[in-house]
Amino acid sequence: xxxxxxxxxxxxxxxxxxxxxxxxxxxxxxxxxxxxxxxxxxxxxxxxxxxxxxxxxxxxxxxxxxxxxxxxxxxxxxxxxxxxxxxxxxxxxxxxxxxxxxxxxxxxxxxxxxxxxxxxxxxxxxxxxxxxxxxxxxxxxxxxxxxxxxxxxxxxxxxxxxxxxxxxxxxxxxxxxxxxxxxxxxxxxxxxxxxxxxxxxxxxxxxxxxxxxxxxxxxxxxxxxxxxxxxxxxxxxxxxxxxxxxxxxxxxxxxxxxxxxxxxxxxxxxxxxxxxxxxxxxxxxxxxxxxxxxxxxxxxxxxxxxxxxxxxxxxxxxxxxxxxxxxxxxxxxxxxxxxxxxxxx
Length: 345
Ligand SMILES: Nc1nc2c(ncn2[C@@H]2O[C@H](COP(=O)(O)OP(=O)(O)O)[C@@H](O)[C@H]2O)c(=O)[nH]1
Ligand SMILES: [Mg+2]
Hints:
Blueprint: H1 2-10, H2 14-25, H3 29-38, E1 46-52, H4 58-70, E2 81-87, H5 95-103, E3 113-119, H6 124-140, E4 145-151, H7 155-161, E5 166-171, H8 177-184, E6 192-195, H9 203-219, H10 234-237, E7 253-255, H11 264-281, H12 283-311, H13 316-325, H14 331-344
Parallel strand pairs: 1-4, 1-5, 2-3, 2-4, 5-6, 6-7
Helix pairs in contact: 1-2, 1-3, 2-3, 2-6, 4-11, 8-9, 13-14
Bound molecules: guanosine-5'-diphosphate (GDP) and magnesium ion (MG).
Magnesium ion binds at residues 58-59, 100, 149.
């Protein structure tokens, strides 16, 4: 069945694509089988993350950027565009998702565009995993450019940025900009920095504070590890040196007015400049490899924990946890005991 569905996806059937995406997102056996079949065809798409605080205009920008890729004004062939809207702010109502659909309505009916909205369910790692699966399916299905919109909330951005070849950070005037930017700590992951809503008062202030933060961030590049792996993966990745992110690339700071389609051409130019830079420097491959290794290890961790959980005698975990709470055993002793049981089983 997975195979027929995969054939339909490759034949360009949108309903089949939607079904495979749902299965991949939910990590069902059928979804995994489809991904196994599709994976050899993935690895060509340009993954572009668009991140920033709610209301900065990300969805409007995504809509405009997608239109630019669909209707290039330099005579280049149109690119097929996949859009993944990740919205952890509305897991229950779906309100924001509906809003995004409305904002992206210009693209509706274009067979070269596929829009996928996701709500988060549960864990952070789960979201990154599901987003990655969805990107792989769209990539294999022949979408050249995949725009991934995420709401700025800190750690989440770093996780999703690890997925992307190019990360666009969106700011807007009047959102308590500088403090917000520092707090979110997402400027360091920016390959392209946008000040959207440039029609609003306060643009100069925003630009000034962003410039100073940007300079700081890039002086500290070598000591920081903006797209580094989380501590959970440190052991397996310890022999793996992170490339010096963005050495040789200075993130441009651009102004846009997404609602009037102003400045979008420059954004798309910067995107293709960045792609060129990634390819010339070898970073394109490095980023791909870092991403795949991180995904492998993330899934490995999850699988091992699941397997271990399945073997664990009922109630043992809680019993050991209670002893830990009472300081009758240390965390390390608790682990030793939990793993010993598994070996005996
Ligand atoms: N004045 C102004 N409003 C904008 C601009 N871009 C987006 N908006 C508006 O800002 C609101 C939030 O936009 P949206 O794209 O949903 O932001 P998101 O939450 O970051 O995805 C909407 O009402 C947009 O119409 C802009 O450049 N200028
Ligand atoms: Mg949005």
